[in-house]
Design goal:
By secondary structure, the protein is an alpha+beta fold. The protein has two domains: 4-176 and 293-374, Zn peptidases (Aminopeptidase), CATH 3.40.630.10; 178-291, Alpha-Beta Plaits (2-Layer Sandwich), CATH 3.30.70.360. It has eleven helices and 18 strands. The strands form five sheets. The chain has a six-stranded mixed β-sheet, with helices on both faces. A four-stranded antiparallel β-sheet has the order 11-13-9-14. A three-stranded antiparallel β-sheet has the order 4-5-18. Strand 4 (95-97) and strand 5 form a beta hairpin. The chain is elongated. The chain starts with a helix and ends in a 27-residue tail after the last helix. Its cofactor is Zn(2+). InterPro entries: ArgE/DapE_CS, Bact_exopeptidase_dim_dom, Peptidase_M20, Peptidase_M20_dimer, Peptidase_M20A. Residues 175-272 form the Peptidase M20 dimerisation domain. GO terms for molecular function: hydrolase activity; metal ion binding. This is N-acetylornithine deacetylase, putative.
Length: 401
């Protein structure tokens, strides 16, 4: 028996999806400069007859929200349209080599966004209004900086579930690492570079602080669940002098097994040790961002739906944790359950050779389509994965049976 999902999957337009991805990557959209790509996506959705709502953050920045079905959806597909900046001035435009698509933002996460848009267009074009699932599509700005787009959405709405298309290699990330951003600043005394004894070198102080941090057992154990990365270091630029200021940005990613507050307390204790043992140290510590980890398990309607979908796609299903920071942390803190799943991988994201397999982009569109059909909605039994009869489980998930 051909299922409803299989019928709709046959209507996914691979050529349109790949063209959409190409055009999205062609538009440079670093955080803060997303207007052009949002105007393009707004027109794409409107040309298909969909109603699109702009949700402004300021004069030039806005989220896009689109809904199907009746009522306020309790399930949204969520994608961020912004990318990191092209700091290296590399060739970041779209290009294809065989079955791999390259370009800035291709994996993180314009491929996920394109697959979500294609799934939404397919539902709108092939189901009459009364049979469309009650689901939403949210395209946000600002994820790569401060999550401003998702925070603006969450100030107005709290759906029960979202699927965020971050690059996971199509693994289902129902768990998520926590994140702590730490800024350390050391101060010294400037002197001529040939007379270092008359000054106090802020860079040397910083290096000693970092050596102290390296003695924390959590950082020394590769299996501790804590990922420690010195992201950036800079000193005062004043010519041929001993630097009187040094700033270091550190990223800490915490596995769901680690407690956020306890980890921060451990960090602060070690920095207090540094203050006592490093002569002349003047150290400022700032934590501009801290997000808790979470683990939703796999016993819920999205997990069940994926367990039925993946064998039909001839693809193994793995439930794992997302290792980076994302808007998933923000949704979880506001009471929405986020599952991260998208094409591409973190290995090439934010690099000059960012890339995504086109096969994964195609599969992502089919997976998002299936999740939309499986989402619990106000019309029991009308939206089916299976045949025209179908059954619901106690959570309201539609069955493939």
């Amino acid at each position: 028996m051909v299922t409803r999902w299989e019928t709709l999957r046959s209507h996914l337009r691979r050529d349109r999806l790949h063209r959409l991805l190409w055009e999205m990557v062609e538009i440079y959209s670093p955080s803060g400069k997303e207007e052009d790509i949002q105007l393009f996506l707004e027109k794409t959705l409107q040309d298909a007859g969909l109603t699109v709502y702009r949700e402004p953050l300021d004069e030039t920045r806005f989220n896009l929200r689109c809904v199907l079905g009746a009522g306020e959806p309790d399930f949204y597909l969520v994608g961020h349209v912004d990318t990191v900046a092209d700091w290296d001035l590399q060739e970041t435009g779209p290009r294809q080599q065989g079955g791999t698509f390259h370009g800035l933002g291709s994996a993180d996460m314009k491929a996920g966004c394109a697959a979500m848009v294609e799934a939404f267009l397919t539902l709108a074009e092939n189901l009459p209004a009364e049979q469309q699932p009650s689901v939403g599509l949210l395209l946000v700005v600002g994820e790569e900086e401060d999550g401003a787009g998702s925070l603006a959405f969450l100030a107005e709405r709290r759906p029960a579930w979202v699927v965020i298309g971050e690059p996971t290699g199509l693994q289902a990330c129902c768990a998520h690492y926590g994140y702590v951003e730490v800024v350390l600043t050391t101060s010294g005394r400037r002197s001529h570079s040939c007379l270092p004894e008359q000054g106090h070198n802020a860079v040397e102080s910083m290096l000693r602080v970092l050596l102290q941090l390296g003695r924390i057992p959590l950082l020394r154990k590769p299996d501790s669940g804590l990922v420690y990365s010195i992201r950036e270091m800079n000193s005062s630029q004043a010519g041929f002098v001993v630097p009187d200021r040094c700033e270091t940005w550190i990223d800490l990613h915490l596995a769901p097994t680690l407690d956020l507050d306890r980890t921060i307390a451990t960090l602060r204790r070690r920095l207090d040790v540094a203050r006592r043992h490093i002569p002349g140290l003047e150290l400022e510590v700032e934590i501009p961002w801290a997000s808790r980890s979470y683990d939703l398990g796999s016993d819920h309607w999205p997990g069940h739906a994926l367990a039925e979908l993946y064998p039909r796609l001839a693809r193994p299903l793995a439930f794992t944790a997302f290792r980076s920071h994302s808007d998933g942390n923000l949704f979880y803190e506001k009471g929405t359950r986020p599952l991260l799943l998208g094409p591409g991988s973190l290995e090439t994201a934010h690099t000059w050779d960012e890339q995504v397999p086109l096969e994964e982009v195609d599969l992502a569109a089919a997976i998002y389509l299936g999740l939309c059909l499986a989402a619990p909605g106000p019309r029991d039994g009308s939206l089916l994965f299976g045949g025209n009869e179908g059954t619901d489980d106690p959570e309201g998930r539609q069955s493939f049976a």
